[in-house]
């Protein structure tokens, strides 16, 4: 039986927690490994293609230390057929390797998923710095 999208979002948030403590494996497991995949990163870069995005995810995770905390603030989400999405914020207190202390992060996030073989796979992530005001 295919996983419902709400249940998947809980696993997606757990994958974000692993990612921000230096473990990209759960995120990579739910990211499409072929086809059109895009990532608009917080630094303003736009990556296209499954392999460049997956490499960026693996490399990006390495900059975080083990005491980083993160959570999602989902403003809206939905699924229809084999497509699903969520939008909102990713909030973190990030331990960045080579820097003292923790850095607060507030990112605006939109992610799109495609269902393939009964599993939701990430095919688009847009992450940009958000202002402190709400």
TrEMBL record:
InterPro entries: NTF2-like_dom_sf (IPR032710), SnoaL-like (IPR037401)
Annotated ranges, domain SnoaL-like: 13-130
Domain of life: Bacteria
Protein known as: Polynucleotide phosphorylase/polyadenylase
Organism: Rubellimicrobium mesophilum DSM 19309
Lineage summary: Bacteria, Pseudomonadati, Pseudomonadota, Alphaproteobacteria, Rhodobacterales
């Amino acid at each position: 039986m295919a996983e419902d999208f709400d249940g998947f979002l809980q696993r997606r948030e757990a994958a974000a927690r692993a990612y921000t403590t230096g473990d990209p494996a759960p995120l990579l497991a739910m990211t499409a490994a072929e086809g059109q995949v895009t990532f608009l990163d917080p630094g303003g870069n736009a990556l296209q293609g499954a392999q460049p995005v997956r490499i960026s995810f693996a490399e990006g995770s390495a900059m975080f230390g083990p005491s980083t905390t993160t959570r999602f603030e989902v403003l809206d989400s939905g699924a229809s057929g084999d497509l699903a999405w969520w939008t909102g914020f990713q909030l973190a207190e990030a331990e960045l390797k080579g820097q003292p202390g923790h850095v607060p992060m507030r990112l605006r996030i939109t992610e799109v998923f495609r269902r393939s073989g009964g599993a939701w796979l990430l095919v688009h992530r847009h992450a940009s710095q958000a202002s402190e005001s709400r």
